[in-house]
Amino acid sequence: MAHQTLIKDFEALLGAENVFSSEADRISYAYDAAVLQPVIPAFVVRPTTKELLGNCVKKLYDNGITMTVRGAGTNLSGGTIPDTSETVVVLTTALTKILEINADDLYAVVEPGVITAHFAAAVAQKNLFYPPDPGSQSVSTIGGNIAENAGGLRGLKYGVTKDYVMGVEFFDATGEIVKSGSRTVKCVTGYNLAGLMIQSEGTLGIFSEAVLKLVPPPKASKALMAVFADVQNAADAVAGIIAAHVVPCTLEFLDNNTIVRVDDFTRAGLPREAGAILLIELDGHPAQVADDAAAVEKVLQANHATAVHVPKDAEEKLKLWEARRLALPVLARCRPTTVLEDATVPRSQIPAMVKAVNDIAAKYKLDVGTFGHAGDGNLHPTFLCDRRDADEFKRVEEAIDEMFDTAIKLKGTLSGEHGIGTAKAKWMEKETSRGTILFSQRLRRALDPKGLLNPTKLVGI
Amino acid sequence: MAHQTLIKDFEALLGAENVFSSEADRISYAYDAAVLQPVIPAFVVRPTTKELLGNCVKKLYDNGITMTVRGAGTNLSGGTIPDTSETVVVLTTALTKILEINADDLYAVVEPGVITAHFAAAVAQKNLFYPPDPGSQSVSTIGGNIAENAGGLRGLKYGVTKDYVMGVEFFDATGEIVKSGSRTVKCVTGYNLAGLMIQSEGTLGIFSEAVLKLVPPPKASKALMAVFADVQNAADAVAGIIAAHVVPCTLEFLDNNTIVRVDDFTRAGLPREAGAILLIELDGHPAQVADDAAAVEKVLQANHATAVHVPKDAEEKLKLWEARRLALPVLARCRPTTVLEDATVPRSQIPAMVKAVNDIAAKYKLDVGTFGHAGDGNLHPTFLCDRRDADEFKRVEEAIDEMFDTAIKLKGTLSGEHGIGTAKAKWMEKETSRGTILFSQRLRRALDPKGLLNPTKLVGI
């Protein structure tokens, strides 16, 4: 079927206001937050109900057209870049209903297009807590969070999106509805397809609903900022805190480059001379928080922290976390291209990884700002460069290669939370095995027989 | 290849002491803990290293022979009953090495045949904690726990086996090695195959290694036994505790039938007149435990508990939990056949489910003892019967049908922690959808093209 006929068909199905086919519209959906070549899709559809979402998938399947599902497009590995110029982008952004927040049973049921921060706020209003807080939470969608298994600042104590998905409902490539998981805290009925769908990057199905776990909110919390002259001391302190069996809610690291640039932008009064700072949040029962804070301060002193600041009120605390959340956007302003990595290592290896990142950046003469979820072993070395400078960009690529090799040598992983997409597919076999790639490809071909769901992503089709 | 030749081959590969082909041996592996027809396998192999395990799988694959992997055979849904008399049972019980317990990074690496309780004890020796504690932990293996996603008494606060699997390595049906997950707390490299393998019941691959998450142990704990004259009051108290945002480590329910029979056997001094008791354990920071205990006692009083006992020392506490752990074996002694179910509902529906179980048992004139993980919404109604009494067993089957219908109506699930196996396969579509079954079967056929891995289990091949 020619595109024009198909567009008319979709307009009839969804209403003309939910089909985008002008050039300007199509260009808007050609890229995501990854540094990769944009691909302009054929057109874009925005179903407004679950049933219409299913109809869209079925129609695209029947016509043999590739589809890239997209929430807010914040992902960092190219998972929402259309596969080809024939691809249709399926938006979930009109599926924004919170269907249920069950305070007695501590779960919620949502449509995939619900914005993470809106959902967290709705949950908080009922005096409950949805912990996953990816950096993009103010715009990212729950469907995207699940498809990428999004992390966030609270991963250390509370885990990542995966740990809050109790069940999913999705349309498979053929438009059939599949359900897995339950509103119960335990469910072993059939394969753990909900688990499989997490981090499947839009290649196995398109979510129509998710059941998410909620928890009672912590009764108290305390934030600390620890300042270090030496970056390695900060890294050692991270390993020390975990080894002391304290599990902070959040344990974030910012190196000097990041500190200076965030302070330039925010005038937040960050310690510009510091080699690194750690931002720590403890939460839980008030007595637990007090004990943990004492244990943490001891570790910080033992690792030569030059100062430990405790925000004096909620406003000052908010400012501190805002400074952390601004790390990426502020670094991104410095040069035309920002390459944000997320190689992750066991937490005790943070000192080795911090050293390796700095050595590699020096070797390849690159400007790097490193920040991230140190408590999870998950750093974000951010290379500031210009993609148009072929020599510099080649050095960035070589540096990343070397960084991944280091992460794997330290028994870590290519990607803690950003996904594989098209950006990291070539490294996958090195971390896993040939058998893993073959197994994954067989799985995928069986579940998407025509190869229509984001076919160039992950292990390919 | 004729069996005799193949047996010789395996004896050469594994040593004669690791191949079991006598009738007595084969009969020992014909059944598991489910009430289902035994099937005597062709023979049984016990590889002693990971490499030999891989060789076994490859040899069976090449010869087109079906294989049933087996740890301790404690599963309750028939997952370890051989498929046919041609099936070879692959034992993991010689793969018992704990390869690493990493106290700095809070993980362990184990072989699949490690016994759950041995592992938990080794971890405790390093002042760490592995929470999953299935009822069969003293004999069950970690490989079996993962294949069934085993639950246990601590599910309410700490989750189930799934929540502690960071990574797995396994041989697929063809004998290729597949790896998924990592020693890091976050990993999104490729499909979440570790998630898929959990609760896959030996149908997608055979584990060779697992990376398990450990946590710091709680600093304090407190146990309580609450006595209720009326079973519904006990059920209401369960829902009340969760609604009060207290998350006990354990929240167990025993009905009168179970109490009396356990007390007959143990002389533990249980309240034989009680309609039901709740056994509750709170753990965490000492101040948190004290606050939680006060909140729980308030809920218990509001729901007309006639007494609340606190064990006066560790020995008395141990006795209490022993009484709970004896519920199943004691009920099992009463009649020739014990049918233990695990339909699970959202926690607020526990009062409705307890009522339904008793109404159904009365309607079908059956002897039922109900106990279980009430805090998880996961009850174990246990029908005491005699399979040889065709009329009685038909009533049991009808009662179970009705119980599953009720669980699903209450937005629950067929199986909280025991699995589908062959026992519950016929009910799966009712809870999920036709699309779910088709999707699962396509997935399975692609990953096990010759249909050799436990082919009659779960959704079939």
From TrEMBL, chains A, B:
Cofactor: FAD
Keywords noted in UniProt: FAD, Flavoprotein, Oxidoreductase
GO-annotated molecular function: FAD binding; oxidoreductase activity
Residue span, FAD-binding PCMH-type domain: 36-217
InterPro entries: FAD-bd_oxidored_4_C (IPR004113), FAD-bd_PCMH (IPR016166), FAD-bd_PCMH-like_sf (IPR036318), FAD-bd_PCMH_sub2 (IPR016169), FAD-linked_Oxase-like_C (IPR016164), FAD-linked_OxidoTrans_Type4 (IPR051914), Oxid_FAD_bind_N (IPR006094), Vanillyl_alc_oxidase_C-sub2 (IPR016171)
Family designation: Belongs to the FAD-binding oxidoreductase/transferase type 4 family.
Name of the protein in its database record: Glycolate oxidase subunit GlcD
Organism of derivation: Desulfobulbus oralis
